[in-house]
Amino acid sequence: MIAYKKMTQNAISAVSYLAEKYDADGGVRVSSLQIARKRGLPRPVVAKILTILSQAGIVSGAPGPNGGYCLARDPADITLWDVAVIFERSDADIMCPLGPGWCGTGEQCPLHDGIQKLREMTEDFLNSQTFEAFKEV
């Protein structure tokens, strides 16, 4: 299991729905309420996520009766990492599970290499997966 915060999970879920509805002509916009209902998420959380993603250039929003949200670019050009990195800390240093005084300040703990490898694999996976897989056929 890939461990990331609930907000990141919800953001990936919301973006995947926008990818499902993606129209290269920009004609399909959906509301935060639609996303919340389709993905089983609280509407205030979705609204907050969409605001953050809009500021980051992942989604585009328009107010009004014909407004709503859509992806700002093709789902094939947006990776899961692009979304996750907005909501997650991406520190170069690994927090040692044995506490301070081990990795980085003395000998590496017995888990260090495995944790580092897992982190690299997770980042590689998130960087290699785009939202294109969610586009409607």
What features would you describe in this structure?
This protein has five helices and two strands; from the N terminus they run αααββαα. The chain has 137 residues and is mainly alpha-helical. A two-stranded antiparallel sheet has the order 1-2. The longest helix has 17 residues, at 112-128. It is elongated and about 60 Å long.
Summarize this entry quickly.
With 137 residues, this protein is mostly helical. It is 45% helix and 6% strand.
By DSSP, the count of extended strands is: 2
Note the run of SSEs as H and E. Answer: HHHEEHH
* Percent of residues in helices: 40-55%
* Rounded average pLDDT: 86
Q: For the largest beta sheet, what order do the strands appear in spatially?
A: 1-2
CA distance, first residue to last residue: 28 Å
Q: What fraction of the residues are assigned to beta strands by DSSP?
A: 5-15%
- Describe the largest sheet: 2 strands, antiparallel
Counting H and I runs of at least 4 residues, what is the number of helices? 5
The value of Rg in angstroms is 18 Å
Overall geometry comes to elongated
Low-confidence stretches: none
Structural class: mainly alpha
Question: Which descriptors would you attach to this protein?
Answer:
137 residues; 5 helices; 6% strand; two-stranded antiparallel sheet; mainly alpha
Write the layout of secondary structure elements.
Blueprint: H1 6-20, H2 32-39, H3 43-55, E1 59-62, E2 68-71, H4 80-87, H5 112-128
Helix pairs in contact: 1-2, 1-3, 1-4, 2-3, 4-5
